[in-house]
């Protein structure tokens, strides 16, 4: 027979499984009539037991919910990118690994664009679903504002919410020197994330 704690954790999983959007710790606490600290502890225990619960800026989701969100974001960004010119093959390009809060997305993109860069896509490396990539084709401030509007209006959500803010951008620029400047500027703002050994090998 399940204990009270086990029954509560089962209910917590059911709540996440049935939700069509991230569920905050406060919402879960109210639903299950416990403190937020208990929810945090239950989440940790469920993760140890193998539940793939992802923490986003808006709350908790199961990995399959995160995947659905990523697919929706990919569809929206694909539609936007289809209206943009394709990447110029004669320009040097580089993939940057980045990490920041959702609220810093505009600053990150503006930093790249201000130095002559163009952001062609965004990708994440999800532990359950592998590499997920979505086109962006952001080349100017208008593109940035459209992308931010889609996020803030709920039309889209950053892929990086499924990987705790870690993501990659493929960026092109008129010269290698411009790409170096972009990398330095991103590092100065704390956005550039260190590559893991297997990423450096790639």
From TrEMBL:
It comes from the Bacteria. GO terms for molecular function: DNA binding; metal ion binding. This is DNA-binding transcriptional regulator. SUPFAM superfamilies: Putative transcriptional regulator TM1602, C-terminal domain (SSF75500), Winged helix' DNA-binding domain (SSF46785). InterPro entries: 3H_dom_sf, 3H_domain, HTH_11, NadR, WH-like_DNA-bd_sf, WH_DNA-bd_sf. Residues 97-192 form the 3H domain. PANTHER family: TRANSCRIPTION REPRESSOR NIAR-RELATED. It comes from Senegalimassilia anaerobia. Residues 8-60 form the Helix-turn-helix type domain. The keyword Metal-binding applies. Gene3D superfamilies: 3H domain, Winged helix-like DNA-binding domain superfamily/Winged helix DNA-binding domain. Ni(2+) binds at residues 100, 108, 167, 169. Keywords: DNA-binding, Metal-binding, Nickel. Transmembrane segments: none annotated.
């Amino acid at each position: 027979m399940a204990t009270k704690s086990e029954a509560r954790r089962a209910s917590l999983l059911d709540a996440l499984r049935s939700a069509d959007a991230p569920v905050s710790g406060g919402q879960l606490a109210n639903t299950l009539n416990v403190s937020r600290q208990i929810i945090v502890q239950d989440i940790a225990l469920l993760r140890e037991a193998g539940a793939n619960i992802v923490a986003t800026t808006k709350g908790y989701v199961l990995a399959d919910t995160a995947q659905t969100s990523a697919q929706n974001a990919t569809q929206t960004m694909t539609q936007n990118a289809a209206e943009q010119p394709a990447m110029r093959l004669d320009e040097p390009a580089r993939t940057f690994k980045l990490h920041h809060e959702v609220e810093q997305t505009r600053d990150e993109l503006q930093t790249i664009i201000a130095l002559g860069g163009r952001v062609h896509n965004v990708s994440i490396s999800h532990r359950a679903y592998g590499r997920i990539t979505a086109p962006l084709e952001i080349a100017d401030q208008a593109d940035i504002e459209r992308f931010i509007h889609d996020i803030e209006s709920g039309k889209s959500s950053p892929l990086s919410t499924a990987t705790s803010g870690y993501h990659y951008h493929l960026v092109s620029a008129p010269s290698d020197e411009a790409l170096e400047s972009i990398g330095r500027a991103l590092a100065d703002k704390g956005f550039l994330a260190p590559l893991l050994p297997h990423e450096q090998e790639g």
